[in-house]
Amino acid sequence: MSANVLTTTKGMSRDAWLGWRRKGVGSSDIAAIMGLVPRYRTQIDVWLEKTGQEPIDDRPPYIVDGVEYPSEAAFWGTVHEDAIANHFAAMTGFKVYRRNAILQHPEHEFMLANLDRAVLVPGDGRVVLECKSTSAYLSEEWRDERVPLAYQAQVQWQLAITGVQYAFIASLIGGNKFTYTRIDRDEEVIAALIQAAADFWKHVVDNTMPPVDGSEKCGEALANLYPESKGEEAIELPPTIKPSELEYYFRMKAQVAEVEDDMRLVENKVKAELGDHARAWCGDYKVFWPTVTSRRLDTKRLKADHPDIYDEYADESTTRRFQIKKGA
């Protein structure tokens, strides 16, 4: 089994590439669909993107030598990808080359992938190379040839689409430590990924929102999906929401408040002992309470002294405030 070429990407604009991405689930989507990166992306984020409902990114592009990148981070990601691929080739002696195409699974049309690179291994033929650049703060996740689960899912997705038996994932950690690991094809994992993605894709086809989760990112996605309330008319919640759930919410909120008080007690005891010292230690723990100077615009005074200037530069924003009350 080998992948179909859905379209070539050489010379393709970013807008056109994003349009093609909406036609299926890519390898960068699968970790979010599996709930592996709740702090960064959720199923609802992916669903909003695939259905063309994601918030408009109005940030100016980052331009280098006339080439537009969506952000400075995206530019450096491209630079590091080239460096990682070249160094992998130098370390292994394998031929590494670009696969300028969006690949599609031969049976499941919603399964798509862009490969960072392909590798020609003597005796094994073509395999996959995934290049990652990560912060030194995340180095523990890569210790002893470990690979974060989100990246393992991404690579298994690529293996499922290409039909090859293994991949290499090469990483640059903290800008100065290079490592690479072989990841073998796992049919059990691949079957689970395909089933989860197929279930998700039904929501895209039917334009029905996938199940919510408890992540902060999911809450942000819902706020983007429903930015404003319409009228004050009250509705009765459907049977999918039970009063017992709201009671549980109240109990958890009270427990959180109690835990926060306990945490503040520890903080205040430590602060009292620190006094005017900026740092301290206690066993294996280090404590910091330095002076941090920042400047903020005094909008209240600006409005009083220069109302015209305030009105000219003031931006109006709207938000929705969620609250649950008990009783009448």
Would you kindly provide a written description of the structure presented here, covering whatever features stand out?
This protein is of the alpha+beta class and 328 residues long. It folds into two domains: 4-206, Lambda Exonuclease, Chain A, CATH 3.90.320; 243-313, no CATH class. The chain is built from ten helices and twelve strands. The chain has helices at 14-21, 30-33, 43-50, 72-92, 149-162, 187-206, 216-225, 243-274, 299-305, 307-313, and strands at 4-8, 62-64, 67-69, 95-97, 101-104, 112-113, 117-121, 125-134, 166-173, 177-184, 279-282, 285-288. The strands form four sheets. A five-stranded mixed β-sheet has the order 4-7-8-9-10, sandwiched between helices. Strands 1-5-6 form a three-stranded antiparallel β-sheet, covered by helices on one side. A two-stranded antiparallel sheet has the order 2-3. Helix 3 (43-50) packs parallel to helix 7, helix 5 crosses helix 6 and helix 9 packs across helix 10. The longest helix is centred in the last third of the chain and has 32 residues, at 243-274. It is globular and about 70 Å long. 20% of the residues are buried. The model has no long low-confidence stretch (mean pLDDT 90).
Based on the model shown, name its key terms.
328 residues; 18% strand; Lambda Exonuclease, Chain A; 5-stranded mixed sheet
Structural category is: alpha+beta
The low-pLDDT segments are: none
Report strand %: 15-25%
Mean pLDDT: 90
- Strand numbers in spatial order across the main sheet: 4-7-8-9-10
> CATH architecture of the largest domain, please?
Alpha-Beta Complex
Shape: globular
Largest sheet: 5 strands, mixed
